[in-house]
């Protein structure tokens, strides 16, 4: 049985000396891209998870700009609110920003910019799915340029995550 937690990944194969990846390896792996799809790990042979954690933890840390580009954020906000009708790109907030949105449409505010950029690029390439609504994102992202994706990622990434609300 594969056990995954925020600090360890059990190695049922017994190949690692301790039988577990170190907390540092799994944490670094998460920060360097391995954690970004909780469903991806289900398709991986459990014996390989520690190797993957070691691989991702050995990658250089991503470069994060400390100075957001106001023009890029403003462009992202424009696309998020109004879309780009000339390129047949709908407004992101039409689905993702509504208080009454379908819960399957994620709240984008506060997600890491790199996460958003990666997902948009995958949707644009039609290599991301997961729900019966994936075709909506394929169509929404197909005409986004790399600069549009960077702008949207910058915009949503700099907005604080909304506070959780209690279920009725």
What is the secondary structure topology, with strand pairs?
Blueprint: H1 23-31, H2 49-58, H3 70-82, H4 93-96, H5 113-124, H6 134-141, H7 146-158
Description:
Residues 1-22 are annotated as: Disordered. InterPro entries: Cyt_c-like_dom, Cyt_c-like_dom_sf, Cytochrome_c_Oxidase_Subunit. Residues 1-16 have a biased composition (Polar residues). Keywords: Electron transport, Heme, Iron, Metal-binding, Transport. The chain has helices spanning 23-31, 49-58, 70-82, 93-96, 113-124, 134-141, 146-158. It is globular, with a radius of gyration of 18 Å. It folds into two domains: 1-62, no CATH class; 70-158, Cytochrome c-like domain (Cytochrome Bc1 Complex, Chain D, domain 2, Orthogonal Bundle). By secondary structure, it is mainly alpha-helical.
Salient structural properties:
single chain, 168 residues, mainly alpha, Cytochrome Bc1 Complex, Chain D, domain 2, 2 domains, 7 helices, globular, disordered N terminus, heme binding
Strand element count: 0
* The CATH top-level class label of the largest domain: Mainly Alpha
Number of domains: 2
| Gross geometry | globular
The CATH homologous superfamily of the largest domain: Cytochrome c-like domain
- Please give the largest β-sheet: none
Structural class: mainly alpha
| Secondary-structure element string | HHHHHHH
Distance between the termini: 36 Å
Total helical segments: 7
**CATH architecture group name of the largest domain:** Orthogonal Bundle
Instruction: Let me know the average pLDDT.
Output: 75
Looking at the structure, the CATH topology of the largest domain is Cytochrome Bc1 Complex, Chain D, domain 2
> How much helicity do the residues have?
40-55%
Strand content: under 5%
Give the C-alpha Rg. 18 Å
Biased composition (Polar residues): 1-16
Region (Disordered): 1-22
Domain Cytochrome c: 71-160
GO molecular function, one term: heme binding
């Amino acid at each position: 049985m594969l056990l995954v937690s925020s600090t360890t990944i059990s190695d049922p194969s017994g190949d690692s000396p301790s039988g577990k990846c170190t907390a540092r390896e799994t944490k670094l792996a998460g920060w360097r891209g391995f954690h970004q799809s909780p469903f991806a790990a289900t398709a991986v042979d459990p014996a390989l998870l520690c190797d993957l954690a070691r691989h991702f933890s050995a990658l250089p840390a991503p470069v994060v700009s400390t100075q957001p580009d106001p023009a890029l954020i403003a462009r992202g906000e424009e696309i998020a609110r109004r879309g780009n009708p000339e390129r047949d790109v709908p407004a992101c907030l039409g689905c993702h920003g509504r208080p009454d949105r379908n819960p399957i449409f994620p709240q984008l505010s506060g997600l890491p910019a790199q996460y958003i950029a990666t997902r948009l690029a995958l949707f644009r390439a039609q290599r991301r799915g997961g729900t019966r609504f994936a075709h909506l994102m394929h169509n929404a992202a197909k005409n986004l340029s790399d600069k549009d994706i960077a702008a949207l990622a910058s915009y949503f990434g700099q907005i604080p995550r909304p506070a959780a609300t209690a279920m009725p």
